[in-house]
Amino acid sequence: MLENPVLQRELLVNLRMPRAFVLLLIYQGVLAAVVYFAWPKEDIRLDLTENRGSVGSLVDLVFLGQFVLASLMAPSFASSAISGEKERKTYEMLLASPIFPESIVLGKLVAALTHLAILIFASLPIVMLSLPLGGVSFYEVIAAYVALISTVIMFGMISIACGSFFPRTSSSLVVSYLLILPLAILGILFWQSFSNFGETRFELAVTVIPGICAAVSIWLFYIVSARMLYPRDMGSEGKEVIDIEKENEEAIGLVIQRDQFPDKLFAPPKRETLMKDGTNPVYDKEMRSEIFGQGTLMLRLAIQISMLLAIPMMAVFLYIFKDLAPWYISYVVLFNMLVGPVFSAGTVTSERERQTLDLLLTTVITPWSMLWGKLISSLRVSSVLTAFLMWPLFLAMFLVSEYLSNIPTIVVYVVIFFLTCLTTSVVGLFCSTLFRKTLTALIATYTIIIVLYVVPLATSYFTYQYFQDAPNAKYVYASTVTSPFAASFAFPLYVDDYTGYAMEWGERVGGRYPLADIAHFGGYVGFTLLLNAVLFGLMIWMFNSRWRVSSSSN
User: Fold this and answer.
1) Can you tell me the distance from the alpha carbon of 225 to that of 409, in angstroms, rounded to the nearest whole number?
2) What angle, rounded to 10 degrees, do the helices at 169-193 and 297-313 form?
3) Burial zone of 419 (CB within 10 Å; 0-12 exposed, 13-18 middle, 19+ buried)
4) C-alpha to C-alpha distance for 459 and 472, rounded to whole angstroms
5) How many CA atoms lie within 13 A of 488 on its CB side?
6) What's the CA dihedral at 17, 101, 301, 429 to 10 degrees?
7) What is the dihedral of CA 367, 524, 69, 105, to 10 degrees?
8) Which among 280, 234, 432, 412 is positioned nearest to 348, based on CA atoms?
9) DSSP designation for 514
């Protein structure tokens, strides 16, 4: 560990960057603000009993918030550990060095998670502030952090393993998220379901969870080390040589046939004839070239994992508990949030990385043709992949009678699907225009989408929990017009009431959101269209002033 050159180099590069300190400041500031605003008022006296009350919910809120943030940040730190070497064309030199593969993998893992570990341990004093209020044991906090650290290490190892299988960081990042987010959701459900069984949760958090995480991490560690000890046939510049026909023969499960329907909708075959007159060369090149130049493993995994997760959700949310249909639409939106930016965030940055952007800007192709060609190509792939998850909704219309009486709600769900696909692609293309590196553009895209889609919901939930009677609480809920999740829940299905609430459209139920908030949905549609128009207009302006996007200007 002390003499590991990989670890030393990665730590020096990562921890000396200004963004490391900026991220630590923002992370601590957000946690401190949550504890400050949720702190009991002055009329609450100290309670050292076992009654958890609002203090226990505050600690759970802070811990689960950290868990979600760590789950989102672990792939961004670790997925490029090995795939980044391939992109920088240094992977073969690293394999040729006298360093043991185990040392390389261990150094990459520790270096990738060190900054994340600093964030986690730096939050411990803020959580400890809640202990004097009572209701929370010191050992509960320790158990929570043991479980958190164990899962973060496992998530980091999953991300590094994905990076060893894919030649591009974007592909390894999206597959990492597809694998990690279901595990993170299971972790949240476990912690919440055992909230009233403190002793049982403590025992599981310090024994079972660390054991499972250690077993998975060690297994993946030796798999990655073995791949580096006996690498596949490596071509020049560290690019893995892949025979598409051989890959399809050896593929397990789904096989993509690029000349057949519907596979050719998102993975068309390479062009073997001349382009017809009037064809947009940018669009044709984006659809048929480098997106699938390194095989179809990422696409196959994305489809198979998403469909595997969709089967139980479809059964529960669409057929058994039909009033929970918005949860399934939320899953579709979440899938597109993960997959959509992968195909759009590298459309312009890849031109810079290949040093072909300046050549493209000097052609007679108009900025409008460049942008819509890149946008439609990425939108086509992401929307078709996401549409595979929409067919259970249309199938339910023929199998469940309640859906035929809720045609307006079905139309709303389809509109949310299309607007989400459009927004993720436009935001990704915009970030790709602004930034120089694909990984930076991809992370920036994810950040913007999370700020638009998730942060307003989290703020609304926090306000509902601690400031429900505040006069400005309604304005916090109004801010969720930026989120398709809130828009989908604004139009639930009209079904027979077995939950004790009236199911009339437009009626506000207790402290819940309105069952059919047409104004809220209209605000979401208006905001989304305006946002996409503004971003696309800015890109047109930057491409018209071509020096603003050229490689030399960065």
Assistant:
1) 51
2) 20
3) buried
4) 13
5) 25
6) 20
7) -40
8) 432
9) B
User: How far is residue 60 CA from its own chain's centroid?
Assistant: 23
Residue 449, φ and ψ in degrees, nearest 5: -65, -40
Question: Half-sphere exposure of 460 toward its Cβ, with a 13 Å CA cutoff?
Answer: 21
Neighbours of 215 (CB within 10 A): 11
Structure pTM? Answer: 0.82
Q: Which two tokens stand for residue 215?
A: 């077993």
Distance CA 427, CA 433 (A): 10
Q: With b meaning 16 or more CB within 10 Å and e meaning fewer, what string describes 5-35? A: ebbeebbeeeeeeeeeeebeeebeeebeebb
- At 150, which amino acid appears? S
Grouping H, G, I as helix, E, B as strand and the rest as coil, residue 240 is: strand
- Cβ contacts of residue 2 below 8 Å, gap of 6+? none
Per DSSP, the three-state class of 264 is helix
CA 249/CA 182 separation, integer angstroms: 29
Contacts of residue 324, defined as CB under 8 A and 6 or more positions apart, other chains included, come to 316, 317
Closest CA to 37 of 481, 517, 539, 472: 472
pLDDT band at 259 (very low <50, low <70, confident <90, very high): low
Residues whose CB falls within 8 Å of the CB of residue 520, separated by 6 or more in sequence, listed in order: 478, 480, 481, 486, 487, 490, 513, 514
Residue 517's nearest CA partner among 492, 495, 499, 485 is 492
Task: Summarize the confidence of residues 479-497 as an average pLDDT.
Answer: 78
Residue type, 521: F
Are 55 and 40 within 8 A, CB to CB?
yes
> Nearest to residue 130, comparing CAs of 46, 30, 193, 65?
46
**Biggest CA pair distance of the chain:** 79
**CA 285 vs CA 244, 292, 324, 347, 372: distances in Å:** 19, 11, 42, 11, 13
Question: What distance in Å separates the CA atoms of residue 296 and residue 242, rounded to the nearest whole number?
Answer: 10
User: Which residues on adjacent β-strands are paired with residue 514?
Assistant: 508
pLDDT in tens, 182-236: 888 888 888 888 877 778 888 888 899 999 999 999 999 999 998 888 776 555 4
- Rounded to whole angstroms, how far apart are CA atoms 55 and 35? 10
Q: DSSP assignment of 285-318, as one string? A: HHHHSGGGTT-SHHHHHHHHHHHHHHHHHIIIII
Evaluate whether 73 touches 14 at the Cβ level (below 8 Å).
Answer: no
Encoded amino acid at 140, one letter:
E
CA nearest neighbour of 486 among 398, 539, 420 = 420
Q: What is the DSSP string of 381-416?
A: HHHHHHHTTTHHHHHHHHH-HHHHTTHHHHHHHHHH
Higher pLDDT, 50 or 466: 466
Helices (H), 88-168: 91-96, 101-122, 124-128, 138-165
Non-local CB neighbours of 526 within 8 Å, separated by 6+ positions = none
- Phi first, then psi: give them for residue 432, nearest 5 degrees: -65, -30
Contact residues for 493 (Cβ-Cβ < 8 A; gap 6+): 322, 323, 325, 402, 403, 406, 409
